[in-house]
Design goal:
Pfam families: Oxidored_FMN
Organism: Pseudoalteromonas fenneropenaei
Helix content: 25-40%
Mean pLDDT: 98
Shape: globular
Bound molecules: ligand FNR, Octadecane
Radius of gyration: 19 Å
Number of domains: 1
CATH architecture: Alpha-Beta Barrel
Strand order of the largest sheet: 3-4-5-10-11-12-13-14
Number of strands: 14
Protein name: Alkene reductase
Strand content: 15-25%
Length: 345
């Protein structure tokens, strides 16, 4: 009884998805040492082209956006050519793919690029780089106004590069405690200039990045992922609610392709949001919403049929089942995900 998932859905006049199942963005740390996507990555994505839309693993917009080993980039011509092989392979299988644009902000590590770590404020996080546990996070430098403006330009440039690489659009990674999300939470943003101190100011960077990318490639091809509920590399602060109330309202006029919930488990509840992040976003945003986090085909159908969101993104089960979509369509059993599957593509 999964027919709901196999209805086509128009995101706008330019992009129609064949089904409601998105492949969630999944960092795999398998690009080469120049952060260029490999042939193995092209094969990995092509096998998953049955998704209505693939969202690529998070892809860094410039060198100081890197916080994990071998995450791909979109700032050199070799990287653009590498991604071109991926997008060609996905398109040859009849699929669609957006690039997820990423800068990790304060969880970047100088080990990868040999420079300063930039963030909204000079507030670090405890901990170490995943998979490289001897690399401790450093205290970042608060970006100057000029540096903030350069970041906005570099997001727009990476979006242009994504289109040159053959992507159907981009998803801005504004979630999970990375740079854009750091501007949106009081725990990471204590600026006293026009980018901090009030909902309007704290939402400014997210909106400037979104608008610059819309100007560069058109609103039909731009999506955004947000984490109003702080849960990863971020402490909760009840004042954040007003920032997201403001931001979601402001996004209404941008006519994005979709808005995507940034969470690992949709059942997580946040007091200051009144419950689940997905329900909060649904109540405050009228456009197409993508839910995610622990869904099975049945629970996704239930959520979509009851109007909680419009499309579902599937993460770990897509790692375990390249043919996730055809298995669901044919009611075949799914292989269970296991962390050991991250070792190979
Ligand atoms: C993720 N997730 C993630 N999110 C994101 O926005 N960009 C990314 O690059 C990644 N990378 C990533 C890697 C791995 C190994 C996991 C498990 C998760 C989060 C992901 O998109 C999704 O929100 C969660 O996995 C929850 O969905 P599932 O797995 O329960 O369907
Ligand atoms: C080296 C791979 C990098 C992957 C980046 C994303 C991390 C994925 C898996 C870790 C799970 C983190 C879960 C955080 C949830 C916190 C809930 C309170």
């Amino acid at each position: 009884m999964t027919a709901t998932l196999f209805q086509a859905v128009a995101l706008n006049d330019s992009i129609t998805l064949e089904n409601r199942i998105l492949m969630a963005p999944l960092t795999r740390c398998m690009a080469d040492d120049n952060l260029v996507p490999t042939d193995a990555m092209a094969a990995y994505y092509a096998k998953r082209a049955g998704a209505g839309l693939i969202i690529s693993e998070a892809t860094i917009i410039r060198p100081d956006g890197q916080g994990y080993p071998n995450t791909p980039g979109l700032f050199t011509s070799a990287q653009i050519q590498g991604w071109r092989k991926v997008t060609d392979a996905v398109h040859a299988e009849g699929g669609k793919i957006f690039a997820q644009l990423w800068h990790v902000g304060r969880v970047a590590h100088p080990h990868f690029f040999g420079g300063e770590v930039l963030a909204p404020s000079a507030i670090g996080v405890e901990g170490t780089v995943p998979r490289m546990r001897d690399l401790h996070y450093v205290t970042p430098k608060a970006a100057s106004l000029d540096e903030v403006q350069q970041l906005v330009k570099d997001y727009a440039k990476a979006a242009e590069n994504a289109i040159e690489a053959g992507f159907d659009g981009v998803e801005i990674h504004g979630a999970n405690g990375y740079l854009i999300d750091q501007f949106l939470h009081y725990a990471a943003n204590q600026r006293e200039d026009s980018y901090g101190g009030s909902p309007e100011n704290m939402a400014r960077f997210a909106l400037e990045v979104t608008d610059a990318i819309i100007d560069a490639i058109g609103h039909e091809r731009v999506a955004l992922r947000l984490s109003p509920g702080a849960y990863f590399n971020m402490e909760q602060d009840a004042r954040d609610r007003a920032v997201f109330d403001y931001l979601l309202q402001a996004l209404q006029s941008r006519q994005l392709a979709y808005l995507h919930v940034g969470i690992f488990d949709d059942e997580m509840r946040f007091d200051y949001l009144g419950g689940r992040v997905s329900d909060y976003m649904r109540a405050h945003y009228q456009g197409t919403l993508v839910g995610v986090g622990g869904f099975t085909p049945d629970s996704a159908v239930q959520a979509i049929d009851s109007g909680r969101f419009d499309l579902v993104a599937i993460g770990r089960p897509f790692i375990a089942n390249a043919d996730y979509v055809s298995k669901v369509r044919n009611a075949e059993p799914l292989v269970s995900y296991d962390d050991s599957m991250l070792a190979t593509l």
